[in-house]
# Entry
Amino acid sequence: MDNPRKRKLTFFTIGLIFLLSGVEYAVILPTIWKYLQTLDAPPYFLGLALSAFSLSGLLTGPLFGLWSDRTRTTKKIILFANLFEMIGNFMYFMGFSKWLLLSSRLVAGIGTGAGSSIFGFLTRSTSPQDRATAFAAVMACRQAGLLIGPAFNIFLRLCDFQLGPFMINKYTAPGLFMCLMWTLLQVAVIFMYWDLLPLEKEKAKGSPTSRSREQDDDQGFVEEDNGEEKPLMGPRDRGGSYGSVLASDPPGYDSSSASNESLSRASPPASPVPPEGPTSSSPFKNFSISREFMREEVVVLLAAQFTTLFNQTALETMVTPMTQKYFNYGELENSVMYCLCGVEVIAGFLFVRWLSQRVTERVVLVVGLAICNISAVWCIIFMANPQGGFELQLTEFIIGVFLQVLGLPFVAVAQVSLFSKITSEKTQGFSQGVRRSVGGLATILGPLWAAGLTENLYIMMGVMMALLMLITVMLAFSYDRLVAPAPEEQADDSDHCG
# Structure
């Protein structure tokens, strides 16, 4: 099979993985609250069950990312992670006790850790210009799962029969259904997923001089006798540049000599950078966590990741008890509501995919945070203490949910795309694992925060509003730094990462 077809099938399989993650979320979330009630679980168990899924993903994400960075493979990681999804969902189906249900979400969450490896793979397999578009498409697949999931739930809620010692009803059926879906995905990964070469290696294999043609002389390059071009100045020669997270220039490299030669445009540097051989050292050689993640622009993006996911999961946890209290919604009504939210989010991701090709990621991020702030103000005014009759309360609720869902695609795509560009490509799996762990921490704390304050929504939403204001101020002060590094800086970091 030729490489273009392998590439298409691999990306299609990645889309299926994210699609199923959305389906799982959509078929379980509308019924888990009443499922826990049938097992005599106290109210705080809802927050524990939702947080357990995120906790295991938080812990395993960096580990899976580290594994993929060292081996440069993702297929076996995905196959290994999917086993936990299968086991965890079967445990959810068994549902003998509230503790087994809690454990099932903890086990299934381990499988989500493979997402860091997948995002690292996508970073290495796409160009910086197309990365936001690719991430938007992948995230839209998950939202498509959120849209399709409630449709499955409409049929799963009709199940009511005995299978050996197990009772299959509207609460246990989602677990069995997802176990079967993840089993089918295993087959798809085996036959339709390949560990492709990174994009720059594919280009080098097809056209050795392709990169040299893309660079201009005014970027500080000199041509060598073999037609290739190498940067004379990298981010280490310009203090404070993005991406300056690894070692200094190689021993013997004479920067003053290189500068003189760049002026004369005559001959190559006296001591060129030694090429990276096939037996290159670990990508984590000379890697520094503090230099990689404690930079201002990285902190801002991680803070945006935490804040938006904290607020999202807190509101999601609050929604089902709130609809039950004020509107007497059941599983069907909640499933329809999540289905409509899925339509909105998919439309949002498609719009962001179009917008990201015309404006920079930081502009998209600003738009998303502005919408999130408007949503937070609306919720604290109209949803913390609903007033009026049924129609007015329902209208206020619909507008609040609509605004909250609307801002998510903007922030999600912008922060993950920018994060992939301002962190080292060689350690992208680990970096994406750290980013997803920050998001996992938010999805742990969000449900716990909301579950404990369902009767005091002013405090719950007030903290959410304060977090949004904080990240907005951080974004305003760091706006100038939220840009991708120049191409020569990226190349320099890639050459010296090992």
Strands lie at 161-163, 166-168, 221-223, 229-231.
